[in-house]
Task: inverse folding
């Protein structure tokens, strides 16, 4: 080797040596970071603090310092943490995180006033721009200084040079403080400024509602939306948000009111939405609202595009309401039957009007004593071309009428056909349940229970709930007395056939000869239903009370409570007592399928009484 090359070789050797040392240092640092992090996660703050202190002294990174002082605070060594933070701030006076951490240290020592005074003094120096205010307010919120964070947002919002309201950030802070009233107000103000953020605001309100334990949040949101829509009726985002909220709360009256208002302003065609509200209101037994919605569409559109849907929906809802009210007024059903004939003559028979055929057949068989005509109508209709689903609906009605007239095997054959053809469709689950109920009626309890066990997991909540109730009726009563269960099943079949005198005799025999903690509430509940159907509402009320007061833990107690609440409200006009029943249901039977409906009814009655 030439001597002239020696200096360059030496330089290369030194460089490679330094590079190797650097790699070793980097590896050592990574090991220390990992160890510190593991100790911190395991809450071994003393060991973690020692490593973070060494890392900070070696490399000078502020992140290491933050973790180090955190560890001191978490171990209760507040004096050391305070000393370290003050020393650090002398060198870094504009490190806002260190200032907030020092105030947090004071607060942990119980010196809340000192912490607040310190921050009020320091925060005056935070630059007045969006990024700085957001950064420091976020640091404050992370240490639970939410009030000061909001004060910072307010300061920035008042500065005309910033020209930003910070409403969204304030909403998050108020939410953290569980101040849902101010959080909602800020979300709505943000929405007014940013209407394109409608879905985001809706999702934030939905999250607030999800974690509402006592119903307070729902009331806050409802009142805020009502105030906003009344003050700013032209704001479509507020109106749409109130409609969405009403649907979440099953407050279909309020949702319909909003849709009508939007429709009348002429900002769009809302008739299809109004029909949708009518359908779900009817499904939830809020028939007056559904009827109001259908009549609104018919009055507005006449024989327009929504005429068939509104006409069919209106007739179906009026029939459902009459059934729910226990009405057996022959004059009413004669008139409704005539209206169905007129509608079919005018519109014709097709997939959309076939539901009227099922209503007509049911009226004939169950209300007007014309079962043979009903069977003939359904069989004639089944010869027409129609969808498999519509055909299943007609067969279901035909099976129900056969069961009503004691043609049990014709009935079970039709139910089985529906199950086989549509398999896992909701209507097939309903047919399977009715087949199990039929077997229960005739005393084939094991067959019925085997089917019901499968149906408990049905996709339809209503079918699953009915299956659970009937399964409990069978299994619980079987444990006590098979003879008593047979009498109960026979009584249920008589009730289905409207043979109320025979049903009551059978139930009286259960009370007299098969009394136990399961059979007695079952018998009283059924006797209450019969009294209701016969219009003897005072007796029905007393019998429902015997169920939920005397047998509060029975599986039909929540249903008896709901039925009695509706009876007290609608038939006996005892709204305050009805409110007590609704409140008792959602307070005591928290897992009941009736909780949402009871809560909504309670609020509606409360608002009506307080008006």
Result:
């Amino acid at each position: 080797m030439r001597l002239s090359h020696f200096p360059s070789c030496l330089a290369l050797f030194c460089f490679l040596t330094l590079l190797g040392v650097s790699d070793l240092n980097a590896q050592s640092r990574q090991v220390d970071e990992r160890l510190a992090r593991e100790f911190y996660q395991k809450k071994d703050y003393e060991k973690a603090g020692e490593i973070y202190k060494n890392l900070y002294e070696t490399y000078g990174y502020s992140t290491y310092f933050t973790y180090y002082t955190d560890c001191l605070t978490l171990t209760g060594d507040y004096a050391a943490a305070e000393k370290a933070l003050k020393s650090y701030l002398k060198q870094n006076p504009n490190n806002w995180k260190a200032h907030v951490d020092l105030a947090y240290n004071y607060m942990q020592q119980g010196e809340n006033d000192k912490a607040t005074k310190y921050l009020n003094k320091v925060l005056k120096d935070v630059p007045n721009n969006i990024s700085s205010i957001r950064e420091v307010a976020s640091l404050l919120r992370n240490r639970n200084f939410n009030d000061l964070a909001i004060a910072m947002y307010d300061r920035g919002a008042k500065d005309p040079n910033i020209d930003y309201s910070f409403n969204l950030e304030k909403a998050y802070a108020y939410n953290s403080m569980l101040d849902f009233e101010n959080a909602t107000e800020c979300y709505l103000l943000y929405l007014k400024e940013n209407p394109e953020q409608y879905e985001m605001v809706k999702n934030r309100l939905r999250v607030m509602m999800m974690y509402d334990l006592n119903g307070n949040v729902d009331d806050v949101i409802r009142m805020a939306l009502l105030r906003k829509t009344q003050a700013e009726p032209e704001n479509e985002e507020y109106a749409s948000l109130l409609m969405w909220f009403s649907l979440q709360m099953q407050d279909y009256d309020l949702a319909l009111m909003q849709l009508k208002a939007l429709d009348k302003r002429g900002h769009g065609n809302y008739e299809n939405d109004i029909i949708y509200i009518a359908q779900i209101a009817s499904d939830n037994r809020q028939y007056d609202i559904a009827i109001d919605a259908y009549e609104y569409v018919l009055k507005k559109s006449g024989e327009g595009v929504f005429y068939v849907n509104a006409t069919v929906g209106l007739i179906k809802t009026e029939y459902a309401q009459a059934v729910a009210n226990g009405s057996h007024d022959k004059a009413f059903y004669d008139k409704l039957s005539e209206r169905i004939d007129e509608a079919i003559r005018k519109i014709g028979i097709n997939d959309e009007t076939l539901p009227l055929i099922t209503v007509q057949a049911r009226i004939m068989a169950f209300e007007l004593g014309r079962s043979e005509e009903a069977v003939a109508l359904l069989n004639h209709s089944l010869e027409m071309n129609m969808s498999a689903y519509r055909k299943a609906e007609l067969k279901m009605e035909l099976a129900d009428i056969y069961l009503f007239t004691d043609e049990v095997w014709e009935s079970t054959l039709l139910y089985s056909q529906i199950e086989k053809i549509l398999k896992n469709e909701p209507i097939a689950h309903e047919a399977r349940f009715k087949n199990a109920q039929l077997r229960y009626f005739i005393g084939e309890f094991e067959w019925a229970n085997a089917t019901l066990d499968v149906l408990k997991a049905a996709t339809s909540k209503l079918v699953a709930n009915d299956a659970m109730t009937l399964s409990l009726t069978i299994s619980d009563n079987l444990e006590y007395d098979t003879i008593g269960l047979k009498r109960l099943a026979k009584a249920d079949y008589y009730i289905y056939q409207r043979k109320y005198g025979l049903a009551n005799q059978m139930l009286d025999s259960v009370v007299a000869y098969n009394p136990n903690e399961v059979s007695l509430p079952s018998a009283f509940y059924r006797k209450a239903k019969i009294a209701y159907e016969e219009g003897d509402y005072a007796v029905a009320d007393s019998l429902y009370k015997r169920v939920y007061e005397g047998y509060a833990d029975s599986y039909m107690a929540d249903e008896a409570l709901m039925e009695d609440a509706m009876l007290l409200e609608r038939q006996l006009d005892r709204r305050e007592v009805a409110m007590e029943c609704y409140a008792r249901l959602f307070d005591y039977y928290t897992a009941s399928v009736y909780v949402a409906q009871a809560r909504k009814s309670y609020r509606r009655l409360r608002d009506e009484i307080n008006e």
